[in-house]
Amino acid sequence: MKTLFTGGVKSGKSHLAEAYILEQAGGRKPYYLATTEFVDDEMRERIRIHRQRRQDAFVTIEEPVNLLGVLQRCPGPVLVECISMWLNNQLYHGAMEADILAELEAAMQLPCAMVLVLNEVGLGIIPDNALARQYVDLSGRAAQLIAAHCERVFFCCAGLKLQMK
Amino acid sequence: MKTLFTGGVKSGKSHLAEAYILEQAGGRKPYYLATTEFVDDEMRERIRIHRQRRQDAFVTIEEPVNLLGVLQRCPGPVLVECISMWLNNQLYHGAMEADILAELEAAMQLPCAMVLVLNEVGLGIIPDNALARQYVDLSGRAAQLIAAHCERVFFCCAGLKLQMK
Amino acid sequence: MKTLFTGGVKSGKSHLAEAYILEQAGGRKPYYLATTEFVDDEMRERIRIHRQRRQDAFVTIEEPVNLLGVLQRCPGPVLVECISMWLNNQLYHGAMEADILAELEAAMQLPCAMVLVLNEVGLGIIPDNALARQYVDLSGRAAQLIAAHCERVFFCCAGLKLQMK
Predict the structure, then answer these.
(1) A121 contact residues in C (CB cutoff 8 A)
(2) Rounded to 5, what percent of chain C is helix, strand, coil?
(3) What is the maximum span of chain A, computed from C-alpha positions, in angstroms?
């Protein structure tokens, strides 16, 4: 069983995804795969708030790049928080789009129960710098690839979730 | 009874919210709380169009900052048009995020029937200036806070509304 | 019968609209109105991928500006791919907003069966340049105008479609 939570910045998707996997896990302690790599003060504060919310409900794994490797060894269920940061890290380390999507495809074929979180970034004006456009395209392709493998897909807005699949 | 209309620029959310509150009011004349403060030519034209559409259907109150004070004295039902502009005004006048959200929380606990309009701004690429990022975060938190107090939440797009709650 | 597919960049709206019109056409070969005018390398690659996907399933017409003229002569069903590019071309050639919307209104009153694709661009932070703001406003007005004439409107995200009307 795989589920995608997508939505905008501060749409409540992380909170909704956490509540959802805890309910699905039915008492088992789920894994929490944190993909954040680059940390400034602003980010540190966000991470602190996220950690506080997780408390002791999850087993946290921190891995910014090797998504497939971690998921292959993870018995699940696992919350991947988040795919957007992982895409960003991959681009930063020079990975090619085709390789990024191939790794994601392989990860989605694992039997492990997963809840994935991804920022929807394509609903604003098209950015005028090429790197941002590349990211928007890659993010949309990743969203489509993930959604195709998911039994459920939720679009989040204002702390609410709307089931698209 | 509280209702949130959210959506993008020119999604039809204001028009839909006006039609909705007029229908809910059932013949009573609702209040219209206009929060716009800073007015250039472009804005003046938008206001003119909005006013023209309202005609004599509403009792208009103009208040850019003191949302809670106005709503405490308003018997309702009231259309708050819009929260996004009020957030913008608060930041301009140097209000702290915690205080802004506390005032909003207090306003949402009033018994007055309200329809609130808020721009969804978090579904594009994350802006590269810190002030815009702060605004996007604040807007998302405000949306979640409001939606938690609303019986109904609508996401608007292409002049149509989709009920999320 | 008219249908609008809207959504963000790489939301799958073009692919979904193509599959939809082919299913609706029931064996007839639909027209494909391609509105792209300005072509750089990035765009050329996008067009190549689109063409490849269409293969021999459509009769392609290329017209960047004269939307109404082409649609008046088209027996349909026709996929208009896309309105966003047509709006962009019209602005580039100096057309006034009122004239653009009047041409669109006339096109939507034609009896021809149409499926239209339009980028939703209004859900990010409001752009700080006036031309981009003008485009966002025009795009939203066009979306509302089209949706008002459509029997069905779909919001697309992550390769999935959500029926709004």
Answers:
(1) 8
(2) 45, 20, 35
(3) 47
CB contact under 8 A, A144 and C10: yes
Question: Residues B16, C91, B132, A92: is their CA dihedral positive or negative?
Answer: positive
Residue A73: its pLDDT value, please? 96
Amino acid at the residue A37: E
Which is higher by pLDDT, B145 or B38?
A: B145
Of B109, B113, B95, which Cα lies nearest the Cα of B33?
B113
* A62-85 core/surface letters (b: 16 or more CB in 10 A; e: else): ebbbebbebbeebebbbbbbbbbb
pLDDT in tens, A132-152: 999 999 999 999 999 999 999
- Binary contact (B121, C120; C-beta < 8 A): no
For residue C161, what is the nearest residue in chain A, using CA coordinates?
A: A164
Identify the domain containing residue B36 by its residue range.
2-163
Q: Locate B51 and state its tokens.
A: 């006013």
Tell me the nearest-neighbour CA distance from C56 into chain B, angstroms: 32
A 85-124 residues inside an 8 A Cβ radius of C: 120-124
Residue with tokens 């309910």: A23
CATH code for the domain of B48: 3.40.50.300
**CB neighbours of A48 closer than 8 A, spacing ≥ 6?**
none
Domain count, chain B: 1
Here the ipTM equals 0.92
Output helix, strand, coil percentages for chain B, rounded to the nearest 5: 45, 20, 35
Amino acid at B111: P
